[in-house]
Amino acid sequence: MASENKSKVSILTNGIIKENPVLRLVLGTCSCLAVTTAVSSALGMGAAFTFVLVCSNILISLLRNVIPAKVHLPCYIVIIAGFVTIVQMVMHAYMDSLYTALGVFLPLIVVNCIILGRAEMFACKNNVVDSALDGVGMGIGYTLTVVLMATIREVLGSGTWLGFQVLPDSIARISIMTQAPGAFFCYGVLMAGCVWLEGKLDARIERKSCCDIDNLKKEG
Amino acid sequence: MNKSTWESTVKPVVVLSVIALVVSFLLALVNSFTAPIIEENQKAATLAAYVDVMPTVSDAKTLEEVTDYTTENVTGVVKAEDGSIAIKAEEKGFDGGILTVIMGYDTNGTVTGIWVDASTQTKGIGSNVANDTFLAQFNGMDGTQNIAIGQGGFDAYSGATISSKALFAAINDCVNCYNELA
């Protein structure tokens, strides 16, 4: 029982450092680079993303024995698109400013490779509880990463955090941080930081490709 | 029907159809809840924009809707108690995105304010036509005369030609509608 609990915890925490979807699996980078100009939109995107990921993971895991292999991708896309559209409609109704800030990247969650990737790699092979935990963990990992990136970019680029001014006007803004090249600088540094942190935590793992993850799981 | 045809051909079709149906039903359900709220929000936003361009109006409730106009692309007209009016026009901008313009008029036909929603245009390029400093050139213009890019001191936003053209077209729609109603 103890080991089972431990594996549940590790499913949850995998997404934060060891299998961080953005920094280690390098998935979903498009939205990650785009929405991180402001902390508020990064938080909103992270929440919307986590909701869709958890829901789609649960549903796909529930239906994993029903969906025939031949049509599994269309089925996943329909399910994911359904949840994304629900989030979109609810957000448009109750959080109009966030809806405007996220713009096209909200509907693009449908084709976000993290969600499809977790459906393919995890939810279709594991039970509902594990899949939900995996969704939560990956969602937290994604949200933490985009918020961290947005913090660096917003503070350096605009001198604000969540809209509040944190740098005095006398310090020059590095405006390139709010643009695409700044996103890449930030992304590279964070990726390196994640690898370094992993070494510090004494949990260094071999550089892996996506398809190796299943093998790693089997080995425990 | 033998078992293999069911497994290989019919079952995938049935499962995908059922999933699509259930998802569509769910979406319709959520939409029936959110659509009225979204519409109400948009109405409130439009009313706030009307008030924004009419310096003599402070409460949207005092505005009266005008419907007897025929100018194309004009989607709404309101009249205030003191006779000043605001006209809303929509034009297709970049890639078919709708650019919305609201112009406020005082009783002499002078433009008292302009409000532009360019959120459908490319961010950082076409969306610039909604910048306040750019729009300042239209404040106080004679709202009974059509305008053109590069004439009479009116300029396009450089780099945003298509959105600027849509903006000028929408302004001219407002001018035409004002002349029709005057």
UniProtKB/TrEMBL annotation, chain A:
Transmembrane intervals: 21-39, 45-63, 75-95, 101-119, 131-152, 172-197
Enzyme category, top tier: translocase
Coiled coil: none
The keyword RNA-binding is assigned to this record: no
Membrane topology: Multi-pass membrane protein
Pfam families membership: Rnf-Nqr
Cellular component GO terms held in the UniProt record: endomembrane system; plasma membrane
GO biological process, one term: electron transport chain
The UniProt record lists the keyword S-adenosyl-L-methionine: no
Annotated EC: 7.-.-.-
Keywords, alphabetical: Cell membrane, Electron transport, Membrane, Translocase, Transmembrane, Transmembrane helix, Transport
Subcellular localization: Cell membrane; Endomembrane system
NCBIfam families linked to this entry: PRK12405.1, rnfE
Protein family per UniProt: Belongs to the NqrDE/RnfAE family.
Chain's role: Part of a membrane-bound complex that couples electron transfer with translocation of ions across the membrane.
Known partners and oligomeric status: The complex is composed of six subunits: RnfA, RnfB, RnfC, RnfD, RnfE and RnfG.
Name of the protein: Ion-translocating oxidoreductase complex subunit E
Underlying gene: rnfE
Automatic annotation (TrEMBL), chain B:
Species the sequence originates in: Faecalibacterium prausnitzii
FMN-binding domain location: 93-178
Domain of life of the organism encoding this protein: Bacteria
Keyword match Electron transport: yes
UniProt keyword annotation of Electron transport present: yes
One term under GO cellular component: plasma membrane
Name of protein: Electron transporter RnfG
GO BP of this protein: electron transport chain
Matches recorded under SMART domains: FMN_bind
GO terms, molecular function: electron transfer activity; FMN binding
InterPro entries reported for this sequence: FMN-bd (IPR007329), Ion_transpt_RnfG/RsxG (IPR010209)
Keyword annotations from UniProtKB, A to Z: Electron transport, Flavoprotein, FMN, Phosphoprotein, Transport
